């Protein structure tokens, strides 16, 4: 038997191994990729695909930009630049329908927020409280949005834009209508009544704080469910579209400021807030049905609300710093204007019309700066110009204005530039960090607005009271205006440095579109 086997083996042909077969086998190493937006599966092991383990296929093992970790993206500057993304359909019927619904929300929500200055002027004139106290109260209409930005962003990701938008509409309308229970007429006001005011008012502080916070919380819910929902539908017209949505807050502020004053003269301040609050809810609630983001954005957008590694990016830090400082003077003009007009010798109706003009200029500025951002100027440069115009309008015009014409000019310039500070934030974030990270970066940017939203109005009120109050004339407003204008100027300088960082990261000339 052994002899037979040997004879059989000797008859078989001998095959010489080729050089590839003689190559030493490399140890198989398991590699993993981090979970990203485009690759939600946390682990991807090359053991499941043997073809990737050979040295000849080493190029296939290299992770793509979409599968790299956030730290690598930040260090390399790749994958988070908004200039390289594609939008399949520019707008379309669905996109413009979302624009219309978001515009309705901004019209009523921000219109009611801006009209709080008229209520403040009525309460101060009626002797209910002083400017400093009401400055703190007025900040409650805007402070919940930046403070609760992270949980509100998570709520939108979990429950959807429709549900969060509907909840915001209810809070805004109920909160504004509930303000009517926060004061009552009295014959013994705490402060002397102003000229033309014959009825004293007294405050119920607890309901005033509660309903103002309710309105501010509703404003935050509305903002995060509608402010960047249109970003995924447009690219070429992104600045224009966002400008249209944000401009509705200016138109709303102009219309509702006049309505509050007109209704207060006819049916009283309490009934004017009830009528406007309820009617706002009736108009906003049906619009929540069409608050649906683009399907590509729903599939790819980042669902995080906070990412610590972004603080390693100098561009993010500069934009965060500029946003925080730019918020300080943002809501001061509409709150100070009614009392400033009275201190300058104008009638209360003139103050209401100035607030309306400021809001109207804000609406026009949001659209105009949005259109400029879509041109070769770019969104970052547009933001820098808006901050410069805002600081100049306060420091060089408002502080030295002695007539209605110069005051109106300051309000037009400041309103147009201040409105752009809000409307340019989503396009700037999308251009620097990408559309699919707009919700994440907007959530973190809104956190930085907490300090300005909380301290801007009260600081102005305290400086006003410290220099004599509204009865001391327009000179008493100068310290507050100088402070706010200077803060805005520092914010503009920060954006100048941000623009330089973006140009360096893209390796383009400083004259390029940024």
Write up what this structure looks like.
By secondary structure, the chain is an all-alpha fold. The chain has one domain: Growth Hormone, Chain: A (Up-down Bundle). The protein has 21 helices and two strands. The chain has helices at 2-11, 19-22, 58-61, 70-76, 92-114, 116-125, 131-139, 144-147, 149-178, 205-226, 238-267, 269-284, 295-300, 314-326, 332-343, 348-374, 379-397, 404-423, 425-433, 438-466, 478-506, and strands at residues 183-186, 200-203. The chain has a two-stranded antiparallel ribbon. Helix 9 (149-178) packs across helix 10 (205-226). The radius of gyration is 29 Å and the shape is globular. It starts with a helix and ends in an 8-residue tail after the last helix. Residues 1-11 and 26-80 have low confidence and may be disordered.
**How many domains, in number, for the residues?**
1
> What is the CATH class name?
Mainly Alpha
Biggest pleated-sheet summary? 2 strands, antiparallel
Name the CATH homologous superfamily: MFS general substrate transporter like domains
Number of helices: 21
First and last CA, distance? 86 Å
Q: Strands across the major sheet, in which order?
A: 1-2
Oligomer: single chain
Q: What percent of residues are in strands?
A: under 5%
Rough shape?
globular
Low-confidence stretches: 1-11, 26-80
Secondary structure layout plus pairing:
Elements: H1 2-11, H2 19-22, H3 58-61, H4 70-76, H5 92-114, H6 116-125, H7 131-139, H8 144-147, H9 149-178, E1 183-186, E2 200-203, H10 205-226, H11 238-267, H12 269-284, H13 295-300, H14 314-326, H15 332-343, H16 348-374, H17 379-397, H18 404-423, H19 425-433, H20 438-466, H21 478-506
Antiparallel strand pairs: 1-2
Helix pairs in contact: 5-10, 5-11, 5-12, 6-7, 6-15, 7-20, 9-10, 9-12, 9-20, 11-12, 11-16, 11-18, 14-20, 14-21, 15-16, 16-17, 16-18, 17-18, 17-21, 20-21
GO cellular component, one term: membrane
Region (Disordered): 1-20
Organism: Sporisorium reilianum (strain SRZ2) (Maize head smut fungus)
């Amino acid at each position: 038997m052994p002899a037979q086997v040997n004879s059989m083996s000797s008859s078989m042909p001998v095959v010489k191994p080729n050089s590839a077969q003689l190559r030493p086998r490399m140890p198989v190493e398991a590699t993993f990729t981090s979970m990203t937006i485009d690759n939600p599966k946390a682990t991807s092991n090359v053991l499941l695909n043997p073809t990737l383990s050979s040295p000849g296929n080493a190029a296939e093992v290299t992770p793509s930009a979409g599968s790299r970790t956030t730290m690598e993206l930040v260090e390399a500057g790749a994958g988070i630049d908004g200039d390289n993304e594609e939008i399949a359909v520019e707008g379309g019927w669905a996109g413009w329908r979302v624009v219309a619904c978001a515009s309705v929300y901004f019209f009523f929500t921000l219109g009611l927020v801006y009209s709080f200055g008229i209520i403040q002027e009525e309460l101060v004139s009626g002797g209910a409280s002083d400017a400093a106290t009401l400055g703190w109260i007025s900040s409650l209409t805007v402070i919940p949005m930046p403070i609760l930005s992270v949980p509100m962003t998570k709520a939108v990701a979990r429950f959807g834009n429709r549900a969060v938008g509907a909840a915001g509409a209810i809070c805004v309308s109920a909160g504004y209508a509930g303000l009517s229970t926060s004061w009552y007429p009295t014959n013994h006001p705490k402060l002397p009544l102003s000229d033309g005011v014959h009825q004293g008012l007294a405050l119920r502080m607890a309901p005033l704080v509660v309903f103002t916070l309710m309105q501010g919380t509703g404003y935050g819910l509305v903002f995060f469910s509608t402010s960047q929902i249109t970003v995924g539908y447009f690219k070429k017209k992104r600045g224009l579209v966002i400008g249209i949505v944000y401009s509705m807050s200016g138109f709303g502020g102009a219309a509702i400021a006049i309505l509050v004053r007109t209704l207060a003269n006819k049916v009283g301040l309490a009934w004017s807030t009830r009528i406007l609050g309820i009617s706002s809810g009736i108009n906003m609630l049906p619009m929540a049905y069409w608050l649906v983001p683009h399907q590509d954005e729903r599939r790819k957008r980042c669902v995080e609300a906070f990412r610590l590694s972004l603080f390693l990016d100098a561009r993010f830090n500069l934009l965060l710093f500029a946003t925080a400082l730019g918020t300080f003077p943002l809501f001061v003009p509409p709150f100070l204007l009614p009392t400033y007009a009275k201190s300058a010798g104008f009638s209360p109706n003139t103050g209401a019309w100035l607030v309306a003009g400021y809001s109207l200029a804000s609406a026009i500025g949001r659209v105009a700066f949005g259109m400029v951002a879509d041109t070769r100027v770019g969104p970052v440069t547009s933001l820098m110009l808006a901050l410069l115009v805002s600081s100049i309008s306060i420091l060089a015009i408002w502080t030295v204005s002695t007539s209605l014409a110069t005051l109106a000019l300051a309000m037009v310039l400041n309103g147009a530039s201040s409105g752009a500070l809000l409307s340019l934030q989503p396009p700037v974030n999308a251009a620097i960090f990408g559309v699919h990270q707009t919700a994440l970066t907007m959530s973190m940017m809104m956190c930085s607005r907490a300090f300005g939203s909380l301290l801007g109005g009260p600081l102005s009120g305290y400086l006003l009271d410290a220099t004599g109050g509204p009865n001391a004339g327009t000179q008493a407003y100068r310290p507050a205006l100088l402070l706010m204008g200077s803060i805005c100027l520092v914010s503009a300088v920060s954006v100048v440095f941000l623009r330089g960082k973006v140009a360096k990261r893209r390796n383009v000339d400083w004259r390029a579109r940024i």
